[in-house]
Specification:
By secondary structure, the chain is an alpha/beta fold. It has helices at about 15-30, 40-50, 65-80, 105-130, 155-175, 190-195, 205-210, 220-235, and strands spanning about 10, 30-35, 55-60, 85-90, 135-140, 180-185, 245. It is built from eight helices and seven strands, in the order E-H-E-H-E-H-E-H-E-H-E-H-H-H-E.
Amino acid sequence: MAEFDDKVYIVTGATSGMGKAVATMLGLEGASIVINGRNEEKGRQELKRMENQGINCVWEGGDVGTDEVNKRLVESALANFGKIDGVVANAGTLGLGALTEVGPDIWHDTINVNLQAVYYVARHVLPVMQKQGKGNLLVNASIAAFKSFPNHPAYCAAKAGAVALVKQIAADYGKYGIRANAMCPGPVDTPLIWDSAKAFPDPSKAVENAGMSTAIGRLGLPDDIASLALFLLSDQSSWITGTAVTIDGGTIFR
């Protein structure tokens, strides 16, 4: 997709899994990337890996569950690349435990990373996109926005909220040439699914069953999600906004 040449994107949660795949695929298509994550060591490793692949990128570490970090991400993109074509709000955390067992700290951290972070980054990037007359906000949500899972109350609530917020942003900012959409993956083979499986008595069996329960009979791959991300960020999807696209191998209807 030559259209990504000279484009600039912020990708949060980019040190592993789906965020890593999205950032890499965008970079290989010619985009410049600001990558983010909580782990400084992993972030520096990813920066080096991407640079070795010829990708133009910078690392800005920090917890996107805080407003300050999101402000810094936007400032970094502008300082290093001069514009922002899109943001992929991918960072996520699970906050496992039954509702009566999840303490306020875990609850708030889960809501902050999965939902508040979308508000924070949008708050800072939307004015930039308004001035540009265009922009694209893509949120990596989850089928957990529509389907409950054992011991995932904070995660499910946050992802449902993120989908609703995406729709509101699309409605309010479409007149400025800004699109906002959500991806809603099902079971994808990332470190997060193995963390999620800890909520089940037999984690390995839970992951195996998750793949077998899809209509296609396998777990998704990070590149499956990255391919959808590139489509939703591209001009090929220029009339798609305010949409939550399910990408789950046929899990949600089974």
